[in-house]
Amino acid sequence: MKIKFKHQQFQLDAVNSIVDIFQGQPNVSSRFTLDKGRRQKSVEIGDFFQATISEPDYGFKNNPIKLIDNEVLNNIQAIQRQNGLKLSERLKGKYNLTVEMETGTGKTYTYIRTMFELYKKYGWSKFIVVVPSIAIRESVLKTFQITEDHFMSEFGSKARYFVYNSKQLHHIEKFATDAGINVMIINSQAFAARGQDARRIYMELDDFNSRRPIDVIASTNPILIIDEPQSVEGAKGKATREGLKQFNPLFTLRYSATHRENYNKVYRLDALDAYNMKLVKKISVKGISVKGTSGTNSYVYLEGIDVSDKHAPVARLEYEKRTKTGLTKVSKKIVTGDDLYQLSDHLEQYKGYKVSEINGQNNSISFINGVTLYAGDIQGDVSELHFRRIQIRETLKSHFEKERVLFHKGIKVLSLFFIDEVAKYRQYDKDGNEKNGEYANIFEEEYNELINEQLSLFTDDPYVQYLNSIRVQSTHKGYFSIDKKSRRFIDSKVSVRETDSDDVDAYDLIMRDKERLLSFEEPTRFIFSHSALKEGWDNPNVFQICMLKHSDSTIKKRQEVGRGLRLCVNMYGERIDSSMPGIDVHEINSLTVVASESYEQFAKQLQSEIAATLSDRPRRVNVDFFRDKVLTNARGEQLKIDEKLANKLQFAFIKNGYVDDEFHLTDDYFAAVDGQTVKLPDELRGHQEQLIELVKSIYVEGKADMTDNDRNRNIVSVKVNNNFYKQEFKELWNRINKKSVYTVQFDSQELVRKCVLALDTNLQVPDIRYAIKHGEMKEIESREQLKQGEAFVTRETQTEYVQGLATSKIKYDLIGKIMDETRLTRKTIVAILKGIKPSTFLLFRKNPEEFVIRASKLINEQKATTIIESITYDVISDTFHTDVFTKNTLKGKLGQNAISVEKHIFDYVVTDSKIEREFAKELDTSQEVKIYAKLPRGFYIPTPVGDYNPDWAIVFKEGDIKYIYFIAETKGSMDSMELREVEKAKIECARRHFAKLNSDQLKYDVVNNYEKLLEIVKG
User: Which contiguous run of DSSP H or E holds residue 873?
Assistant: First the structure.
């Protein structure tokens, strides 16, 4: 199986953020005379004399940057402004450029694509990737290998890549003399360590024709790409930085999720962005915490609470019981009134342990002796081995729970166990034969016990046949270092003051099996690995991570979860992301971490680590935050927030209570966003959604909760009930389950006419302005003040307009620029520009950039209107299957996002917002409503702007109702101006789709409450 790669906008944005910095750089190749060294060629002259002749040859190097520093800085600032980042006041570390990308979002793919784009646009072909460890080096090499065919199809060429080896210097010769893209991958120890091997790069070597390898590399002016610069420049910072200078780089690109130095940051995709955009898995934590002291003998483990509207909450409890062979631990479902003293066969330690309350709201159990335990709590004496048994059992339960659903979606589920000693998993007898360690034995015991539950639940299910085909011994596998002589697993070697291992063979094994592990034909589903092998590799289908070791404060939680953050792939190698129709990314992509500590401890440390990486995010919503930001809506229309509008926005946020005295966002703001009732100045009409997106870049402590407590999800699965099988719902479903296709047919000439009229009537281009600021230096108080540029104070400012036409040396591809903004053909753009008045066209010379932006905005408006006006839907014979309801991955917590209901086709409704919760409650209590359903994401309508999933399907009782069957979309605001352009387009497409279903009794509409719905259905 091969993983498939696709265009992802956030990766393309990161690539363009680098490529566009050098806008204006000519695309020319650059050759140089390569020093071939003192290679001896013997030439006989007479009988005694020999002379030497040298062979001149050419190499290829990166062409020098032709732009002046100020042009590069202006380009950097334009990109920073576009990406909402702090502007660089000067070129820090010329030219060091920083890209921040969260773990699991394809950082390596992004910088490889950047190489191809830089080569295509500017002819730069020499690149060196510097990595901090062998682990990351092997990961980078693997990414080059698996993306080779993808980039060949994209760019029509392949990169020549190799790992630097001081014993294989012929690669460097080829690196210098080859004209195509050449990449050398090198770990920092190879040039910055003290050993003899590291010094070889600086030595004149006989086997390299008496040349220094560093000189040949430096002569190519390579572009340096530093992967994890905070680690590369870490402990041996000065030596490494000096070593990097020796490469004579054209410029340096720095990629990481956790930068220590932010030199000219041009792109940011941090943990918060990645989570909100659903580019990484959601993290769910199963914490386990030991309560009480060693003096407490009454062992109790509360696994969790099950709630149902059919019966009172039930606790899943493990306790000790007397048997004929002695004490044994048993798991049982417990209800209020149960007495552990009786259930344990009268063990004295359980006197007083009669259940007084089981609370489904806070997941707790209370006994009459005053003891209260919460889900995940262990009380009493518990050995470390039994603690590990509980962790393994919880991991297996999560694994089966996910696998049961995802198997039918063609997604292989993997679980990863980190251990700190190989002997706990694998041992050897005196003859060298393998045998299980204690963890492997526990795993097989718990697996066999739980597998019987799975097999009894489903009889004729293909999933059961899959489970039956796998032996327990072949479903778990160890990935460890291998001793070269004995070929046995051994503990990974970790150097002093380090927590990572550099074992090449262990990484090679994990990397080599990466794709094979994703196939259902491979029986391995559970991976045991050494805790030192925690960086540089991952597998997208790891859904559970279990830490079978003590929590270590030196190891970051982000590293621990990093092996499973990447979005999963299906059996065809397709990434399960937001581009896949009919899914919620985080319903499928959820990583469960089975921690060796409480949820609170784990989550607190993880959150503090994430918060530390968000340090450069703005905290205050004030004039400074809004000023100069550019908002671009779905139609491509841009709105730049000037000083006046920034002040208006600040006033609106104060007036509506959206900020406090310190300009920090308040709960009132988040409530308004949730209720879709945010009040903004009129100037923001058409850009409200983009403004709210902009405000999301503000970091608010406590609001960026990227982990949830797995124990809190007390509704573990939502099943269909009797309402689903009633005739009324079947009739509704048969009316709406038809699939359709859309066609957009419009007259290009008509579009051109509309665009010409709009441009001639409405296009206005402002004059270019320049600001004159007069300032003076005040008293210098400190060195820090100077460094921060605060010694100068502005005394007065003045704005002037450029009179006359703007002239520039830069040649604009006007047609190409408008094509990029509007996605129309060159032929159509030419026709529009030819059709407008000469006076309108002359506005281009007045201010070229503004002309492109404003003309594109007007063209996009006409295009959007034309598409919606001319779209038609045709019903096809294919239909949606009822398994969109029955095979769901919905989970929830009662009282938060799940409510108990009676008229719905499930016993619970899991909602996304407060509006949906209120609407569901009103539907459930209404006398007019017979049955209703929250439509799953698997039910969708295709549209030109993305698939659309309506919210509700409702069956009304017959009587004074005009429409018995209703499809409803709930929105906080009914004002069409308040809805996003994309939403408006999707809603209009939905109207046309449902209109084609030919049913007088079926109606689709948008409502904001139940009263509005009733008003429509009664006609």
Answer: strand 871-879
- Tell me how far apart the terminal alpha carbons of the chain are, to the nearest angstrom: 56
CA-to-CA dists, residue 691 to 275, 681, 979, angstroms: 19, 11, 13
pLDDT value for 773: 53
Phi, psi for residue 891 in degrees, rounded to 5:
-140, 160
Report the half-sphere exposure of 942 (CA within 13 A, side-chain side).
17
User: Hey, which of 130-144, 641-655, 665-679, 799-813 has the most confident mean pLDDT?
Assistant: 641-655
Cα(12)–Cα(700) distance, integer angstroms:
28
Please state, in angstroms and rounded to a whole number, the distance separating the CA atoms of residues 881 and 223: 53
Check residue 221 and give left, alpha or beta (phi > 0: left; psi -120 to 50: alpha): left
* Structure tokens that stand for 20 in this block: 């566009």
CA 793, CA 785: separation in Å to the nearest integer? 12
Within 10 Å of residue 264's Cβ, how many Cβ atoms?
A: 24
Mean pLDDT of 57-72: 90
Q: Is residue 403 a contact partner of residue 391, using CB atoms and an 8 Å limit?
A: no
Span of 327-331, 580-584, 969-973, 1015-1019 with lowest mean pLDDT? 969-973
Does the pLDDT of residue 505 top 60, yes or no? no
Can you point out the beta strands (E) in 277-394? 282-286, 289-291, 300-306, 314-323, 326-334, 355-359, 364-367, 372-374, 377-379
Please state, in angstroms and rounded to a whole number, the distance separating the CA atoms of residues 102 and 730.
46
Count the alpha carbons within 13 Å of 525 in the hemisphere toward its beta carbon: 26
AA identity, residue 330: V
Strands (E), 42-179: 43-45, 49-51, 57-61, 96-101, 126-131, 160-163
Query: What is the rounded CA–CA span in Å between residue 907 and residue 910?
Result: 10
d(CA 93, CA 790): 21
Reading the block at residue 852, the tokens are 């492109």
Query: Which of 561, 562, 566, 523 is closest to 541 using CA atoms?
Result: 566
What values do phi and psi take at 469, rounded to 5? -80, -5
Distance CA 163, CA 805 (A): 54
Q: How far apart are CA 117 and CA 129, in angstroms?
A: 16
pTM comes to: 0.74
Any idea what DSSP says for residue 86? P
Question: Per-residue pLDDT averaged across 726-746, rounded?
Answer: 90
Virtual torsion, Cα 677, 683, 685, 688, nearest 10 deg:
-50
Q: Is the pLDDT of residue 117 over 80?
A: yes
Q: Per-residue DSSP letters for 670-731?
A: HHHHHTT-----GGGTT-HHHHHHHHTTS--TTT---EEEGGG--B----B-HHHHSHHHHH
Position 918 pLDDT exceeds 50: yes
Output b/e per residue, 419-448; b: 16+ Cβ within 10 A: beebebbbbeeeeeeeebbebbebbbebbe
- Which amino acid appears at position 532 of this protein? A
Q: Is 83 exposed, middle or buried (0-12, 13-18, 19+ CB in 10 A)?
A: middle
Pick from 836, 826, 825, 827: which is nearest to 754 by CA? 836
Whole-number pLDDT of residue 579:
84
pLDDT in tens, 591-626: 999 988 888 888 888 888 887 777 677 888 999 889
848-870 vs 748-762: helix axis angle to the nearest 10?
A: 140
More confident residue, 509 or 237: 237
Residue 846 pLDDT > 50, yes or no?
yes
Q: What three-state secondary structure class fits 597?
A: coil
Q: Is the pLDDT of residue 1005 over 50?
A: yes
